[in-house]
Amino acid sequence: MSDLTALDAAHAAMEADEANAAARLRFYERLADSELFLLLSEEPVDENVSPELFELSDHAFVLVFDREDRLAQFVGRPAPYAALSGRVIAGLLDGQGIGLGVNLEVAPSSILIPPEAVTWLSETLGHAPDEAEARIEEIGRPAGLPEALLEALDSKLVTATGLAHSAYLAAATYEGGARNHLLAFVDAVPGAEDALAKAVSEALTFSGIEAGALDVSFVRASDPLAAKLAQWGLRFDLPQPEEVQELGRAAPGSDPDKPPILR
């Protein structure tokens, strides 16, 4: 099929080797990062959403689809929905005893995710990286990093549209002699630092690599350190947003500081 999605591909990789924990983690990462269309029982009211509930396999499930046409194909009639990220939906369902039906009957990635797996995903996404301060004394080329980590970072940074100009992965030596690999973001948008650090932490978690394997830092393009990073580091270019257009009232879930309320 030519219309396979990233979620389809991740699901296929997971199904191809059920014992492969890394493939299973990558599927859940794709699910969290994807925009999903949540089937509702009625149109959203302000920030309140009422998902349609289905009793399946001894649990209640809400249904989500990673494309609008897949939702329409499943329902077969006009139906209300809310477009939310997988991470927001997992947070809404956490502790509710409700599972997640993904692309049921309409895609190769059709799967039922039980409530306990939804809770695990929400808790995993809720982990915040530790903060520390250390003076960087030397920058060098990155070496010996697992290919899985590089792929995870590349996939994760694609989702960080407009949060920074670029990032460099390099080896760093700190005051006192400690060494570690460092991912430094260049010209991060003020206030985006926590989101970027968390994105890197998730890339590590879902690639199965210990969180301490990578430090995160933030520099301005005018800083002398940025020149050293450009000389020795592996560069990642973050996607930049298109020209912002004036929009009407925001849809539920579009403001990360005001997640929708489950009814």
TrEMBL record:
Q: Where is the SseB protein N-terminal domain?
A: 8-120
Q: Name one Pfam family in it.
A: SseB_C
Write out the ranges of the annotated region (Disordered): 243-263
Q: Which InterPro entries match?
A: SseB_C, SseB_N
* Domain SseB protein C-terminal per the UniProt entry, residue ranges: 139-229
What name goes with this protein? Answer: SseB family protein
Organism whose genome encodes this protein: Thalassovita mangrovi
